[in-house]
Amino acid sequence: MEVFMDFLEGLNDNIIWGVPMMILMIGTGLYLTFVTKGVIFRRFGTVLRHTAVTLFQKREKEDKESGGISSFQAVCTALAATVGTGNIVGVALAVAVGGPGAMFWLWVSALVGMVIKYCEVTLSVAYRTKNSKGEIVGGPMYYISRGLGTKWMAVLFALLGFLASFGIGASVQANSLAGSIHETFEIPTWIVGLVVAVIAALVLIGGISRIAQVTEILVPFMAVFYIAGALLVLIIQAEAIPAALVSIFKGAFTGTSATGGFLGASAMYACRIGMARGIFTHEAGMGSAPIAHASANIDHPARQGLWGAFEVFLDSIVMCTITGLVIITSGLWYADEGMDKGAMSAAAFENAFSGGKYIVTIGLVLFAFATIIAWYYYGEKCVEYLFKENRTAIRLYQVAYTVFVFIGCVSSLDSVWEFADLFNGLMAVPNLIALIALAPVIKRLSADFFKDPDVVHPADKDYSKSLR
Q1: How do residues 415-429 score in pLDDT, each as one tens digit?
Q2: Pairwise CA distance, residues 387 & 422, whole Å
Q3: How many helices (H) and strands (E) does the chain have?
Q4: How far is it between the farthest Cα atoms of the chain?
Q5: What's the domain range around 240?
Q6: Per the structure, how many domains does the chain have?
Q7: Phi and psi (nearest 5°) for 54?
């Protein structure tokens, strides 16, 4: 078993999340940027006007008769899955092993990710359909099968998404949640497991409507709570910010020398770790978030695509940046070689003011729970696709997922992390192939929308018919 796990770890580090994946991901992003003429960046003001600015306006309510949810609920569900432990632990890992320069390459990954997420969300809405219950469903399995006509690749994606949900969605997040509570409040993990499993089950049985209702409250609260705490730390350590920024840009191209407990990192290694952690946290290209975005009540596919780009911007450009700056300005990233990467973020907050570690603990708990319920929805839609909406299969999946949440709380999950990384990475392959193949469709939809973004299109238009 140990030999197999060593092989799996090597496979993930060198191939699945190594240079080949980075080349495929970055290459796809650059190609799609060329195809769309960089519209996400050229018209970034339009992106913000139709996303961030609307957060301060009266939002539309869920239309139950349409079988969908609001655009805001859709993006909150997607953010619930992407804004997670990667924003705290993942960033700490990137800086601790790649040096401050890893942050620069995380930003590069995020910029490419904004384009990819915009494109995959746009396709997901364009090729979505309704299931037997009248619910709007979509995602890579639908634009692969309906857009490319490649059934086997759609089934492969759904199978990988189903398997990945037990790892990164249930077990890993539950383990992080229970571990944080146990370390801070000394509550036994089995008690935490029971409580979290019961609460999660109560949310999950309500389907996308209840999941969306929970995430539209939870996601804004946890984001504001964590960002406010991190900004307070940065205000206290403001004098160290200029030097931190210099180290980020310098380390990105020249590497970071060994100092204190930090062993040093080359520019190439900083690039690799920064890119890999960036992809892991914003999930652009994996095809998971489009499953949630597809359920949005929206008039044009590209309009929801803007929310996909904004999702990556908030997750990686904003939240990961402030986490990285907190860690770099604290100086803890090089002070102790043996410090646990999960504890590093908490220690960096605590270094600024007494009680700062509780911000990280509460943030981790909220982020992890949000990810648990969002990834359940992704897994359920994959099961629904694989088993042709068989209710027994969905119920069995619901029970199994809840059990894995409890198991995750009480177990050591080093091996589960490796399997989660494997399935997450493999999910991206059929999805990225589909994005490249359907690039002409993305180009047409983008041109149609951006010629006048303020025009309201027919809400019931089936775009998949006009794209054949």
Answers
A1: 667 777 788 889 999
A2: 23
A3: 24, 2
A4: 61
A5: 2-57+66-446
A6: 1
A7: -70, -15
